[in-house]
């Protein structure tokens, strides 16, 4: 449609009509300043500035402003494109995951951990005590009043006391920015209050209460502001500085982990491409001298001219692979033991598949413990062996000692237990995963997998026990920050899980965690009802102060079940670092006490603290139990012919 021509307007007063405004001219009524011609301005000499006359400041060239604006536009365009790319990557990955899971049967229960009944019991208890609820509400109100009061004082310049240490908020951005600082402190107030409220509930079954506490902690950990992009200043800073590339990389990591988990998110904890078993982890020299359907027996090379006469045989947990004791030369327990003059053997368990679904405790006793001991004796010519049982391998070894005591078998001279439990009354948070409701879910999961528990299932359980360290820290780093997983040998090993036979695993959970049968003298293995008090061989128990899988109190109760001489040592750190702590690292500490009083608290009261690793203390004890010195043994020259170099083949089988 053509524009209508504008008709001239006439003035209603006597003033002359104003000429139409030309395009591009100023709209202000102020008359323009007269400007000199360029030639005239160039001809004029520069006038010196007087004291009262300010020196004119140089103005940026118009092109500078245009360049800056263009750079900003380019940055915004790049950021927008990267945000869109990240969103599409995430959406595509989630869609692929949904399709891959579409034909799989749904879980038996929407609440496999039986949390709802536990929370109902806790809330019923709270509701029956309204005065406790009122007190809790008043406490929360008081905490928030203090939060806002301290925030106001901080805004007025008052220096506040340092915040409590929390690895999730260690970056200075959490405290330097007032908004994120308040967000952080508000979250900590609320989560601490909520967890304290559940912990203070009375008249509820202890296991029910512990389940409610555990999952409340999981919930509050999940809702940390550090776990969300919009409320994490460190992730936002990385997003801005990289023009969105950090989020693109993060969503690519997210998609790769979904694909690796076949539709389930399998968070990468380590750069698996940096490690290879037998190349840069598990490199201690030795030979596989025996192999059958259940284990490979590895004899490691001597590192001294002479060795102790009684060899040392290590039974690691079948939940994990043995090379936690041989990650790197500098922290290898196996290399260190060889350097102390011990002949070291390791039972490297097979990574079981469906054909081992019916293997139980009897099989692992007869075909594992007894056969490995017999082969070590055959290879070395020694009448006796010293044994080590690590974690669940120690539980089996303890039961085996009870079986030997009942049969009069004296082939074991002494046994050492690393983080091993035999009394499960105080077994920690893993007890939460052993009620019958959850066991039925696990059993169905193993049936669906052909009679074995997939390695990822146990990994998920152990990760949940330390969610902030093993789940959320990697979620933030890998996905929100877009960083690659670290090249960390310990985390590589942690992710290298094994499967477990259905019969063995269900018996272990029901008999040990469920009934505490071994401690009560009600556990039968190999046709014998085990009584640990009849075990008289010398024992060395190691526990770790911060162990969340085999708590120190649980290990101490286990040590008191046996009838022979027992040495108990407490190490610093946790389930892994407390055990694998080479003396050369000079880390942590350990406590010793030759007595074994009724309680751990009494033992600690009389214990002496020592700096550094407990290995030297154990080695002194072990030397006394290992006989005279003899010529070093060569694995290639024993009665058992070498099959292949260490670390063998079984340890390389992936789940």
From TrEMBL:
<protein>
    <submittedName>
        <fullName>Class I poly(R)-hydroxyalkanoic acid synthase</fullName>
    </submittedName>
</protein>
<dbReference type="InterPro" id="IPR029058">
    <property type="entry name" value="AB_hydrolase_fold"/>
</dbReference>
<feature type="region of interest" description="Disordered">
    <location>
        <begin position="630"/>
        <end position="655"/>
    </location>
</feature>
<dbReference type="InterPro" id="IPR010941">
    <property type="entry name" value="PhaC_N"/>
</dbReference>
<dbReference type="InterPro" id="IPR051321">
    <property type="entry name" value="PHA/PHB_synthase"/>
</dbReference>
<feature type="region of interest" description="Disordered">
    <location>
        <begin position="1"/>
        <end position="64"/>
    </location>
</feature>
<keyword id="KW-0012">Acyltransferase</keyword>
<feature type="domain" description="Poly-beta-hydroxybutyrate polymerase N-terminal">
    <location>
        <begin position="165"/>
        <end position="337"/>
    </location>
</feature>
<feature type="compositionally biased region" description="Low complexity">
    <location>
        <begin position="40"/>
        <end position="50"/>
    </location>
</feature>
<keyword id="KW-0808">Transferase</keyword>
<dbReference type="Pfam" id="PF07167">
    <property type="entry name" value="PhaC_N"/>
</dbReference>
<dbReference type="InterPro" id="IPR010963">
    <property type="entry name" value="PHA_synth_I"/>
</dbReference>
<feature type="compositionally biased region" description="Pro residues">
    <location>
        <begin position="51"/>
        <end position="61"/>
    </location>
</feature>
<keyword id="KW-0963">Cytoplasm</keyword>
